[in-house]
Amino acid sequence: MASTATNTSVKWLTVVGCGALIAAIPPPETVPRQSWTLLAIFIATIVGSIVQPLRGSAMVLIGVIATVVFGALKPTEALAGYSEPVVWLVLAAFFLSCGMIKTGLGRRIALIFVRLMGRRTIGLGYALIATDFVLASMIPSNGARSGGVILPIAQSVAGEYKSQPDDATAGRLGTYLMNLLYQCDVTICAIFITGQAANFIIANTVFEKTGIRLTYLGWLTAAIVPGLISLAVVPLVIYRFFPPEIKETPEAPEFAAAELKKIGPMSSHEKAMLLVLIGVVALWITKDLHSIDAGIVALSGICVLLAARVLDWGDLMGERNAWSVFIWYGGLVNMAAALGNTKITTIFADKMAALTGGMSWGWALAFLLLIYFYTHYFFASITAHVLAMLIPFLAATIAIGAPVGLAVLTLAYFSNLNASLTHYGTTPAPVYFGTGYVKQGNWWTIGFIVSIINIAIWSTVGVGWWKLLGWW
What we know:
- This protein is mainly α.
- Among the domains are: 1-78, no CATH class; 85-321, no CATH class.
- The protein is built from 22 helices and no strands.
- The longest helix has 30 residues, at 440-469.
- The model has no long low-confidence stretch (mean pLDDT 91).
């Protein structure tokens, strides 16, 4: 008990100390004291979200209140993030995921792929990857896709082959599947703007700072070529160098067929869920033809699901993670936006540009992107990394003379791909790691190897593809 109290005290000291240290440093003459105070609170909030003396959302709420108490923002400014459509879009993403899981539609899709492709271990892996790919085109919550749909089936199949976590049987199948599914989920997150919720924040930030609009189709078109190559190469590399002991899985299609027989034909709720998802995605894709905000589109889909009794109000109120993330996103998005409107971003960009003095913009861009990518070792989520570093690094890459379109795309996709590194890189990471199939050393080794592969593919094939598309 004393040890727990001591650890909590150390965490609080870390959070408060980081904020106090920044606040105590005299700000440059060009930076108002309120902006410096905001930076101190923002950094303390990010650190608090990582070390978590309280849950991340609670730390963000404390940070929001602190911005008012210490005079960095007015009350209406501090709470403005909760009126942002992108924050409501994130909330709606969780509700859509809830419908997908409740109706069983996601599980049905996964079982169909396993039945078709799962006779060999490599095919089983690709079947589950294909499921994630299809769901990511509609469901902007990688945590819900992984934890609610993909992982339970992967665990069931591993269990069929007596591959259990934390013992000598883990390497039969389970370790391979956990590594494979997480690393490929990271790539899938990068392929779709709906791959994970922070992508909408990235798109919104990019539009505000550069005027470049990343639409559903624009994001997908630019990502699809390097993304599919990554999805082809990464599984083969993992299979070759970190292979499962079991190479054939003939029981997997039989398991899937039996499960599909149990659940029977599609229910009316499944059909309604599928139609709503198709409608929501269609409106996202055709954004240029109408003026309906993406968040309003998603919330409209939720309203249809409520009216059709696919979801009820209790389902929405019971989604504790959704409301927790709502508090997290609204507070951090607002603080990051407010900080981005200060001169601190410009100062950072100038300092980073000075570090690359004498380099061509190509080498300077590569240098900055590598820093941005590998600093994800210090972040426990894509959202925290994006909110803390996207705006200043976007400013820095533009300051060195890099083409704006190229800078935007590389930062947007690297913001997802860098989550491959650790077992806490994005929401599904602790979910997969928590199964006990993968040891930390193995996870970090594979994560680093995959990071090199992805950087190589996206910075060569991707850059060439974006040139062909006219992005730079």
